[in-house]
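Note to self: the last two entries modelled the partners one at a time, which told us nothing about the interface. This time every component goes in together.
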Amino acid sequence: MEETSKPLDMRYDGAPRRSQKPKKNWLDYVWSFFSSVKVGVWLIVLTLLGAAIGSIYPQEEAFIIPPGIDYYESTYGWLGKWYYILGLSHTYTSWWFQLLVLMLGTSIVVASLDRGIPLYKALKKQKPDRTIDFMRRQQLTLEYELPFEAEDQAAADRWLNEVSAQLGKQRFRVSRVGMAVMGEKNRWSRWGPYVNHLGLIIFLLIILIRTLPGFTLEEYISVLEGDTIPIPNTNYYLKNEKFTVEFYENDELRGQFREEERVVPRRFETKAVLYTCTERCGTSDPVLQEAVQGTIEVNNPLEYRGLSIYQFGYEVTPQIRSVTVSLFDKQTGENYGQFTLKTQNPDLSYTAGPYKLRLHNYYPEFSLDATGAPTTVSGSKPNAPAYIFMITGPGLPEEGSSYIYFPREIDKERFRQDDINAAVGTGDKFEIRAGGMEDVEIATYTSTLTARTDPTVPYLLFGGLIAFIGLAMGFYWQHRRIWLRVDGNRLTLAAHTNKNWYGMRTEAKKLLEALGLEAAAVQIKQKNREGEPS
Amino acid sequence: MGKYRRWIQISIFIAVLLIAGYTVAGSLLGKDENPPVAGDSVVPFELETLGGTMAGTADFKGKPMVINFWGTFCPPCVEETPALQRMYEKYKDQGVVILGVNLGEKDLVRVSQFVKEFDVTYPILLDPELLVRDRYGVRSYPTTFFVDASGKVREVKIGGMTEGYIDSSIQNIIQ
Amino acid sequence: MTLYNISNTALVISLFSYIAAFIVFVISYTGRRFGNRDPQEQIRKWGTRAFGITVFGLAMQIIYFVSRWIANRFIPVSNLFEFMSFLSMMVIVAFVILYLIYRKPLLGAFATPVGFIILAYAMVFPWEAQPLIPSLNSVWLYIHVTTAATAEAFFAVGFAGGLMYLLRVVKFQSAEKRDRKQQRGVEFTLFAVLCVFGFIFSTMLFRGIGYEAAFAGQEVVQGNVTEVTVEYTMPPIAAPHGYETISMDSFLGMNQPLFQAPDWMNGVNAGRKFNTFLWSLLFGLVLYGLLRLILRKPIGAAIQPVLRDIDPEDLDEITYRAIAIGFPLFTLGALIFAMIWAHIAWNRFWGWDPKEVWALITWLFYSAYLHLRLGRGWLGLRSAWLAVIGFVVVMFTLIGVNLIIAGLHSYAGV
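The predicted structure of the combined assembly is written out below.
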């Protein structure tokens, strides 16, 4: 046997691809551009680099309210400033990154069609009887003289039957035409890369669909215990009825955490009610209808008609919600009556016995401005609430007498409530006072939740799993074929696999050894080594 | 067979081009959720007034608007209120309206007292849940949007304004 | 003896077993030309012994894992120490699998060090397992982390194979420009490995002598300026930028930090991490210098003769095979399962968090590797370099992201 010519290009089983035919027009050029593996790898690398650049500084999307250039410049200096200016602070939603991914997707589609269709056709119409020339030009070859007479057709036939049987035992699918036998197994593993590509395309297409307006919703909300707030961009309101958190005992912690007496939550949950708003939404008295109620925990959302509300975290924000006080006569100690003051939009009038109190003004965080006039530091947080009443009733002037009341002792001292009230006269006559801590209603926690709608998730998972299955198909199994033909008493054997030649060689050896041809087994020749395109 | 394949190729590329156009347009033109800047159209909204009725941008279509985001807790907002009121009186006959959007103060007693004290006659709209504030991307207080009669935002001013400034900005939008 | 004692002891035994296995693997090759021994027989005999020690070490590590699982009542992959230990265990498992397929003891001489270096690195971090915070308390934690770590372990063995290929094939004798570039690349890679040693060694050393230094400064946290104190457990070459020294143990006559970290390094811990990095670099340099002095030639050139009898194409195949096994697992564990878990815990399956981004980058990188190899015929040298660089990307994803970039993903305890 002389040295045979160079090995046959067995990629796609030797079938020609559309992109390989001489390019006639622009369509062919574009097609073969996207079909090329070189271009595909370039696209992968560029996407990879783009993604890496986007990870340097936090992206705008990572913030609940996207910051502007000032944030980047003040936190990261001039590098941050230029990061923002070049648009890198929203890399992943930028037009160039999305175009890269689109081109990658195109490349996947075109490359798969360009190769998959010819491969499918070639494998479908292959025949078991190959020419000797074809077989000699395979990677694994063997030519051997069999131990019977060249003219003995019957012996050859019997021998080939043995081969078929043995191939069957090695779990090959056997086909025979005349004096040629082919064993083939795991053809389906050839489709691995194509199945993988299909999965990726499904995934990318669904990602694309997601970007259509209105498809998905994502909102972060913070709700104080007892409050009801709207969920932005929806007609829903959420009420935090009660928030509970359990912590690990110190002796359940270990080492550093235990020493530092760290506070580590074991679990926390929000008892919540979801409302739909029908009218006057966004104002201070919307018309609400209860939709559903339930308990929201991490990993366990509240769900309603495609909307999911997840527990994200919580903050410790103790605040007075209300305080129940009584109006006392300073001299006699008589209690004229009790009433409750809210710290958010308090009522305008109260009655205590014969006296009427009109709320003249209310400041959640009382302070004195530059001119010494009362004002509030915070627009809504009752950090230092102060109520100014005009009291009317027996023994008081018609227009009423003013009285200022601070629920918190510390504010009362700081702003000298008694002095002020004494100066306007009411201080000697009246006192407004709460009974004790039991009269103060405090909300301790603010629950942070995320509201989300995303119908695409199960389909994305589907696409991802298909992609994985394709990888497993392609990498964990191999397509193996082995051809044998007998001419007279000469055996020509050839074998091909798309991966793992070591394994293919072992199979071929095993076949020959099982047929009693150990001497032949060691003569199997391999042209190139593992991994080369074949 | 060859012709069939050609059509597949062409349709794939047409689909890709369409998606590319959609993608680029989406990124470059910005999503509708971006806060309005000078040159954009005003973002419509409707809120409750102090009086309890509903009012919004739609009620003043065709009129120049000054949308001022303010709060009693914000000293520069308080300082510029008398100037705003004077400018309102000066220009209201020319159709200019000033909308005072209050930033999340739910204590109506204080807001009413403020309006009474400063004799504010332009509409005060209440944004208790800060939804309009977020939609307008307001981060510092006060922030004022000057909108011309055609509904286009001409200027976004961050910070307190002097009377002279308000005057010249309003002049700008009535042209 | 508590379960934790058993667990910790078993882990330490496994560390020393891997080191012993490494030594015996090396002996099986270096000792083969002594005396009248038949080289093949020597390799086979000692190779099998070394493999046996490796398996024993693995058994010990499994004991560590199972007993810790029982003691913790949840799977021990919840902090950096546990995760890295698990990773090292999977590296040894991956090695065992590839050894059983290819029966090449020399792979052991390179894979076991990858295993025990990762294990030693893990041991530097706090061991105590803290009880799980709610967002970590999901079965998908187990599934995602263990699958991803298994895949990364195969990539690690691919790294070992790739490095072996380079050491086998790079022409250290040649003075041609192209070969010089290769030599420098290999030396740099070995130097980087020595820096990891430097990190482990320096951390243990300074911890052992109980070194402490403290600094006070101001940081802007969520818009508020707060006073913070930073503690160093290594002598400050670089102090945090703009901080004052509160106290500092004297070291080699040094009473002041040498300089301040550059101001563009942000975050409370930036200065400390930079300082640790500098010390690792320093120790790495010293180790490298010493080795060069002793060996009197580039380290790669010194190791090359050991690999003389191995067929480079076998190494090429082992490297490829390891990565081919690991890649589908990586897709499943680091991407798909990660997205499932993220969806359940935070209700967004992908947030472009730096850790997620770098997992994607790793995936894209190995995808490029496979396409170049299978589609463009990139074998040999180019393929080996990609396998080495790929593992650096994996390590950056695991460690660099936590260290340099912050995000939602930082493991509890570090």
